[in-house]
Amino acid sequence: MYKPLGGKGKKAKKIKGNMEKGNDKYVQAPLGMKDLFPEERLLWVEMENAAREEFEIAGYHEIRTPVFEDTRLFVRSIGEATDIVEKEMYTFGDSAGTSITLRPENTASVMRAYLQYELYKTKKFQKFYYIGPMFRKERPQAGRLRQFHQMGVEAIGSYDPLLDVETIKVATRVYDRLGLDGYVVKINTIGCEKCRPGYRDILKKELSNYKDELCELCKARLERNVFRVLDCKNKKCKEIRKNVSNTEDHTCKDCLEHFKIVKGAFEDIGLDYTVDPHLVRGLDYYTKTVYEITHSAMGARDTICAGGRYDNLISDIGGPPTGAVGFAAGMEASMIALLKVREKNKESKLDTSSLAPDIFIVSIGIESRNYCFKLLNQLRQGGIRVDMDYECRPTKAQMKIANKLNSRFTIIMGSEEREKGVIKLKNMQTGDENFSEDTDKIIEIVKGNR
User: Fold this and answer.
1) Is the N or the C terminus of the chain less surrounded, counting Cβ atoms within 10 Å?
2) What sign does the CA torsion over 303, 307, 312, 314 have?
3) Residue 136, annotated ligand binder?
């Protein structure tokens, strides 16, 4: 992998030391932000491609929303008493005096677009997917950065419980395509606006018996957002929640029937799942089905994908009653789990061949450089990855660079080759050489050896 400090040895240590001393010469990235280098990007591209293919196979189409929105959108959709709104949003004012917020999640933005452009009037049922950065001001840790990335789907305009299962299956198909084994699908029902208030009262009463044992954060949640206590990762709070009533025992007939169909559909398609009776989501807009996909490789905070149904979200932000369901997968967390699984299975490292040029052109003498540059552009026009030396190195040093870059071929161009109009192509693996006056022939040889 690329080293963000720019190499190894004394130079890298010196740079790191200057940065740690606060030397203004080396400005660091903000806390919780990460640079992405070419070799690391390969895994991102692999994951993005797998997601796009599976999403589109299932009929979801890409939507791209702004990275910031009117703050009121997130307050109304996520919930004023949530950790995200209270502590984690990047909110600031623009020149017009409007409060805007970098998106902490993308479901609200997609619903806003669906409502703003009145898509429900032309085609009520819509399927969208997105891949992109989100922003939360939380304590950085493995798989959780302040600028993080999510890939997700939103199915809008239906109350069908089969759609709940479809979205979960789409997520697992992405992970299956990537070879991520060992994940666990957890589901639950959290009821609807008819039965949630009653369960909220019961839960608050039961948890009050353990108030002194709850963590400080959950003591506050007990009064403001009691469902969030069930989502706490604190070891003691996790033990306490085993002693309180579960949601399924206090949901209405309609919600139970919905959940029954969900479980039946899981069994019909042979997708393994676990009912977690205390599973909730941290956002206020969820109703009925909620789910998580977890992986033990992530430790205590093991969720790599989460979602559920949010039938009231569009009406909460001013639209008509509209059923909707979807998920968001954390890309950083998913990739950490994937790398650990591949390491455990002793799978080969990422294929970095796409970073290597097909041909590296070596120029003999300064007078050959313009000729080489012209040839380079002719070959690129034919779809060949070509590079050359731009530091005026000697011939021997250029050959070392070609080897270091793992170039598959080299072209060595000197005065003799220029005068004869001949291109000498050398295969760096076999040592075989080909001579041609025709760049199209060179292109044909290189493409034939890919």
Assistant:
1) C
2) positive
3) yes
Does pLDDT of 18 surpass 60?
A: no
* Residue 378 assigned as binding residue: no
Cβ atoms within 10 Å of 22's Cβ, excluding its own: 8
Residue 106 annotated as binding site: yes
pTM for the full predicted model? 0.87
Question: For the chain, which domains are there?
Answer: 1-30 (no CATH), 35-195+251-344 (3.30.930.10), 356-448 (3.40.50.800)
- Tell me what the mean pLDDT of segment 278-293 comes to: 87
Tell me if 370 is assigned to a ligand binding site: no
Q: Does 419 carry a binding-site annotation?
A: no
Q: Which residue has the higher pLDDT, 220 or 401?
A: 401
